[in-house]
Write a structure and sequence with these properties.
alpha/beta; Glycerol-3-phosphate (1)-acyltransferase; six-stranded mixed sheet; 6 helices
Length: about 250
């Protein structure tokens, strides 16, 4: 399959049905602000990353049109990773390998060692694929924190209410996609608010909130746009600004 072309129905339709069935069994879901997501044409959804599995499952079950999630596969090794990578390629999910070397990211929970050369190669390919998909009018989803709160491995976040600093990659991807006269790509902030419904976190009450889109204009301060989108995602996740610092409204995780 060539990247930038629509994902065939035989790939995403069965996956969507599976996730919908799975969500009914374990997730009490409410969706707000879905009218902000275009029914066709390109968009970049920028979301909080709370749960390593359910975040993506909720997106996959919610949309009627194909979605494309930028996926980090550094946590998987060997045959297992090859199988997951094949599935991601079939669905046109760009793949990256996180190195965990960002100084703003706590290193208390390192994952498997990642070869820097491999990471750069995957990143270049992911940038090319994401740019092509956006220019083809596809729906992209990124988690700019990089790491989820609930993770099969130890979390890099100090507690369930914490956010990691947003990385600027999504702004750069939108800028690259808009070069050459491509129509502006709406950047849609997405918040997740989770409440555990049992002590073992086997069932959750989840609110996913889509916010009003923002746009990257020519010559705009990209760092300011990054901070604005991060603030919006936090607010949509149930966090309120307090003198420039996000403070938790303390969702019920009991």
């Amino acid at each position: 399959m060539s990247h930038g072309s629509p994902t065939p129905g035989y790939v995403w339709k069965p996956a969507r049905q599976w996730f919908r069935w799975h969500l009914k069994r374990q997730i009490d879901l409410r969706v707000e602000g879905f009218e902000y997501v275009p029914r066709d044409g390109a968009a970049m959804l920028v979301a909080r990353h709370f749960h390593h599995y359910w975040d993506g499952a909720i997106f996959s079950a919610t949309f009627e049109r194909p979605i494309h999630i930028v996926v980090g596969l550094d946590w998987s090794q060997g045959i297992g990773r090859k199988a997951i990578e094949a599935l991601c390629r079939a669905a046109d999910f760009p793949i990256i390998l996180r190195t965990g070397t960002d100084p703003s990211t706590p290193a208390s929970a390192p994952g498997p060692a990642v070869d820097v050369t491999d990471a750069r190669r995957y990143l270049r390919q992911a940038v090319d694929e994401t740019t092509a998909l956006l220019r083809a009018g596809e729906l992209m989803i990124v988690f700019p924190e990089g790491y989820p709160t609930i993770d099969p491995h130890a979390s890099r976040k100090p507690d369930r209410d914490a956010f990691l600093p947003f990385q600027p990659g999504f702004v750069q991807l939108v800028a690259q996609a808009q070069r050459g006269g491509t129509p502006p790509v709406p950047i849609i902030p997405v918040g997740f608010e989770y409440a555990s419904l049992d002590p073992k976190d086997k069932r959750w009450r989840v609110v996913v909130r889509f916010g009003e889109p923002v746009f990257l204009a020519p010559g705009q301060d990209r760092a300011a746009l990054l901070r604005d989108v991060e603030s919006r995602v936090k607010a949509l996740s149930g966090y309120l600004p307090d003198h420039g610092v996000a403070t938790a409204r303390r969702p019920n995780h009991s």
